[in-house]
Amino acid sequence: MPYHSPNKGHGSSSFQDSRHSSESLKRIMGNSNLKQHIETAQKTGVCQLRHMTLKEVPEELQKLSKNLRTVDLSDNKITHLPPWFTSMTTLKNFTLNNGTLVSLPEDFGKLKKLEVLCLNSNSLSSLPSSFPNLTNLKTLSLSGNHLKQLPSELLSLPQLDVVDLSQNSITKLPQDMSGLQAVELNLNQNQITKLPESIAKCPRLKVLRLEENCLEISAFTPEIMKTSKISLFAVEGNMFDMKLFHQLDGYDEYMERFTATKKKFN
């Protein structure tokens, strides 16, 4: 007579039970973890919610909309920001890197105290028309998105210092770039084929990064080389040999600016 173990048939169900209990434990832990972060944010004005497997911005943040200065929602699966997000009028730093963000709210410009905005490695293809209202924005990082052109909304931001638009699909720049206030503009790893001469009129532009684009040597006109304030061109990996860059009309004037800037930092 075959021997039947008295425990036969119970192993799988006890395994499932333990799996369910560990899943619910994970859920409870996740919620208490979130609760803890929210409580900390209430005291400090800094909310750090990275790697929380969030699919949307937690509603609990809405209650803190009047005292949050810094929010980091990086490494989550958030595709949209809720309409109430723009009521966080005290927000100075907002980061959501490595996400699935496809757009920003149309009234995003209400965040008038915003100084630093980092939305690297998302799926943004444009900026809302209210973006120029971010009059205190100093640092903007949109590397690794789906932009096909440099957003014209950036050309009227008065405090802008650093703009990173690297690793997008930008093929062209606005014809009139003279309104851009940035000191550094990073356009590395795009598909830019031409530079508008108006880039020479950018009042504060000192560093222009254009590595790994589709530029011919003719893009660097005498006006750009001679009259711009640019003291660092990073242009390796384009459609020309760097020897040709060194032979450009205006290269000497550029090197004077480069050397003068270098001396300042030495």
UniProtKB/TrEMBL annotation:
InterPro entries: Leu-rich_rpt, Leu-rich_rpt_typical-subtyp, LRR_dom_sf, LRR_domain-containing. Residues 1-24 are annotated as: Disordered. It comes from the Eukaryota. Pfam families: LRR_1, LRR_8. PANTHER family: LEUCINE-RICH REPEAT-CONTAINING PROTEIN 57, PTHR48051. This is Leucine-rich repeat-containing protein 57-like isoform X2. One of its GO terms (cellular component) is cytoplasm. The gene is 106053753. Keywords: Leucine-rich repeat, Repeat.
